[in-house]
Fold these 4 entries.
Entry 1:
Amino acid sequence: MSRARTLALLVVVVLLVVGLWVLPEVLRRVAVDRLSKQTGRAVTIQDIDLNLFTGRLAIKGFRLAERDRPEPFAEFERFDVQLGLLDLLRSHVRVREITLVAPSVRVVRQASGELNFSDLLAASKEPAPEPRPGPSRWTVSIERARLLRGRVHVEDRGVSPQAEWVMQGLELDARSLTTRAGDAPGLVDVGAQINEARLAVHAEPVRLDPLRIAARVTLEGFETRRLNEYIYIPRGTPYMPRGM
């Protein structure tokens, strides 16, 4: 190989390495800019890791602020996803693993009925996509999906006294979800603490195409007095639910 060709090849390799090195930062800046413009809110992403050879993407330190305050409306510690790249050649999207760590959302309903995310719903309205002429030849499989340490805090100022609902310790573990015909069905487990109550959901089997789910749901320790502000019971009613 001549010196000129060797030098050209070396330059291409260097440019490729530099491009792969700066690509995650470019993606981070573009994502922050687009999301900020679309939502009209402050958006922060601490870091993005991308490996095109293994098909892994990691988004770290995401935060979406409240509409008129710097406090976060939604945030998460880390989001990881890994794809099977060779499966794309067979029109199959295979998600080897997807994990969302420590997501948190704060929902507020004002006395007027307005929600603190109403502006996001208005901003997301887009024309409905035109229906496709026929069924897609693409299939999707998720080998494992996890949600760890989730939290949802709801403040309902539309009732008196104000109601507060806190879901914490939200955990989800889903396995073998697929739209491929003939594959074995998957399963989903969900657990969370809702105020003083404990929620557990076990769904098995779970089929996506067509959608078919058999699930067992249990809620232990729930205090019915928390529903007092939402239920109208006329005076003189001879029967009252326990705890109200």
Entry 2:
Amino acid sequence: MTNARRLVVAVAVLVLHGLLIGTITEASQTPTAVDVQVDDVNHVITFTGHITLYPLCAPRVKASPSFRGTDGETMPTSPCEISESVRQYIQTNIEQIWNGHKYDCYDVVIKADVTVDNRGAPSDNSPDRLLVGLDQTATSFDSHTHGAPYQPGHTVSGNTPNDRLIPINSTDRPSRWAYPPIGEGGNWANVYAHEFGHVMGLDDSYEIGTNAKGKIKNLVPGHQPDLMFDSNDNKVDQTTIDRLVERTGKLSHATTKCDYMIDQMVDWYHFTSVKCDTPEGDWVLTLDGTHDIGGGVVYVLTGSGLITLTDSGTAVTGPWDAQYNTSVEGIPVSIGGQNGHLSGDAEFVKPNTLNLVTTNADADYYASNPYASRSGPAADPSRPITFTVINDHFC
């Protein structure tokens, strides 16, 4: 479908979609209404949407003998003022529904920065906020959020930055919401959360069709029925979260830093491990190394272990267990070597430290103990070890 064709279709169904796409005029402006911050250390992506509500009604002239002041002074009628309770209701509806989701190992945090301007329609020249008129008098109302013309290549089901809907301030077709949350079909309980989805860059997940009874809503292929399909729904499908995150261009399943790697020398011991997804669960640890002590004597170390971590909410801890073998290069273990077993406690300290403490160590010594001629910390494989963990995308 061409851009021109797409624009015509969007305008034709603007009332039913709850989303308004129009032509940018001189009095229109695209604000940076949404900030997206990615914290790769704590694995959080935060969306902050900036909205200013203003009343959709005109002030009246109050000239009452009981009025304390000058007769004829302009005073707002009650529906013209947006109270703090109304502002809080809208913010709460948005944040309660949109929070509590994840993208891979990242928490998706949604913040609604909702302010009120009761002085009337503010200037459209707002560089960092979306202006939304709030109608508190309507008995039937279709809330909508105004968006700029779609970017080239936009598709409703696309997950790229070019598919992102961009909210815009416009005098031609300003964004307008209703309070209480009503619509053509009655109460739309979660209409503010739905409209905030548009503010953050999402399209409606339905398209309008017809049957023998009239107009119907059809689910767009590639979408799931959730809040962006029905303003009464209180759930957000994971595919919608994925689309929201990926349309920012800041994260993808190929770039999230959810995985962990150990690749570290501790004296002559070389430790390696890769843990996918999160620090919780099983880490498979391998260790190897060679140490030339001179005189043609080279110690060889091999081994493996398992670390199992659990997140209690306050700490990421668990047990670990390892088997290792040391020998002299070229000499069988049965002649000169040691088979050992270690176990103990592990703790992962965010963002990038893994501590191992040995609580039990035992070994079988053979005819010649490779450690007999050694002293100092390098001779003790059971000492506490601290790893510096690399956090990135490895799996």
Entry 3:
Amino acid sequence: MPPGCGYLAAAREHPPATAVRQQRRDLDIAIHLVRDFNQRQSQIFFVTATFIVGYQPAALHPLVDEDVAEAAAALAATFETSARGVIYEHPATTAAGGRLAAALKPLLTESGQGGGTAFERDAAVVLRRIEDVARHRSPLEGAGPHALVELLGRVIRPGPGNADGNDEATSAPSEPSRLIVP
């Protein structure tokens, strides 16, 4: 069909009811995830979630919620221990979780520079929430082993990369978010 087709334009402007319902469920779950976070914790959550969405595992299997839970648990324990003044790197119990934690930790450490123990406590709170949702999936009932990863992928869409030196003004425009905010 041609790009100027009226039917395609109408379909883009008015998504099917199932897509609208999915967007509303996703929004409800996302709000549940960050419901009582302070500003710093919300920022840590979105930095972490954006990283998880863009993370490409080294192995041939895709990232599953259990890997996210293991990485979040290990990093949360590391930050909790550090906030008490003890430097100890808690390992994840799975190899995939350990690789994710190793990739995520430098980003969180850089984000928290100068934040001290307050940042470490906030990071631990956020990571424990991510671990809890990834393990128990209570708001994601009936979902498969990728439920949280898929939810984050639908809700958080990373912007165009600037690795090639282009700024966003000169790069191709990205597709607008289809998340409906009531």
Entry 4:
Amino acid sequence: MQDFLELALRILNGIITIGFFPFLFQIYRKTSRRFYLLWGVGFLLYGINIVIRATLPFFGLEETLNAQIFSFLFVLTGFILIITGIGELIDSARHFFIASMSMPLMLVILYFTTQQHDVGRSISLMPYVFIALSLLVIRSRYTNALDLLIVGWGILLFDNVGLAIGAINGMYVEVFAIFGKFVIVIGMTSPRFSFLVDDLRRFLIAGLPSVYNDSASNRMILIDSKCESRDNEIVWIRSKVKENSAKAYRTVLISTYDLIAPPDLRRGEIKDVDIFLVRMLTGGRGTLNVFEGHTMTINDDVNELDILFTEIINFSENRKIRCEIILYNLSALIHTHGWKRVYSFLLSKIQQIKGSEVYMYAFYYPNTHENIADISKFEMIFDNIMTIS
């Protein structure tokens, strides 16, 4: 009876491990993070190996060399993908892939040392040791929550050590394995985990993500404000900043002529880390090292604004992080610099913005412009016009 229960739990362990693949693949499709694809396929092959080993006795193939090699190929490829996935998190997939390729050599040694159980068992534990240690090293360098992954892989390592030395009953081995894998999946499906590639020692505006979000098709949006007062517009901006913060987006608010000052934002319980404020003032002096501080000042010059946009776009592209620019407001720029200069600036940025992960929201007030034909030109180059009130 106990043997039957152990076999049933082993098959269940394999099926559950295989079942992680479609779950992780859906997250990969939503986030486009290759880590989830690598670990999803890795768990798929890992689970197939478990099922094969569990069912071989039914076919009398447990002692055949071909069946053993076939099973080993699945688990070997699975671990290579899982280890490579760890490297993908910190932008070192190639190095981790090279390191994982030492496992085929280990398995060859394992095959020729099957009579030397201590050597064979030690080698079979190496993938678990390598994964657990890698996660510990990464955890010591980054502040993201890796605790659940470390605990999960630690359980699998403990489980396999207990199996190797005969200290854990086979039935409990499968129970611990199932529990450990669930801990791993819970940890790795946290949205903040997918942002581990960010170096959190640098300026981090948007914080750690708590929700996923699908990319929108509209990159440049005009906001036609019907608000009775500026306070209502500030409320909308605060809400947008909080929404972006939950998704780990950088929010850059460009305030022309100090129409929105830092105290206006703090009243909405917005923290400095949630937003990067650019104050565009006449005679403003400041550096254009974007994201090096929470507030910066630039001169009232469209050329400097052009440079600022380029820096934000380059940052977003290099770091693979979405940035959202809120321009408050476009009408003030047009009144000051003329529609032709501002229009030319925006035209030059359309291709860069739409080829990046940068989104732009620009407040404007059509009724303040004498020539409606001029303002209509701006409406045509933006993807959408939204109204707030």
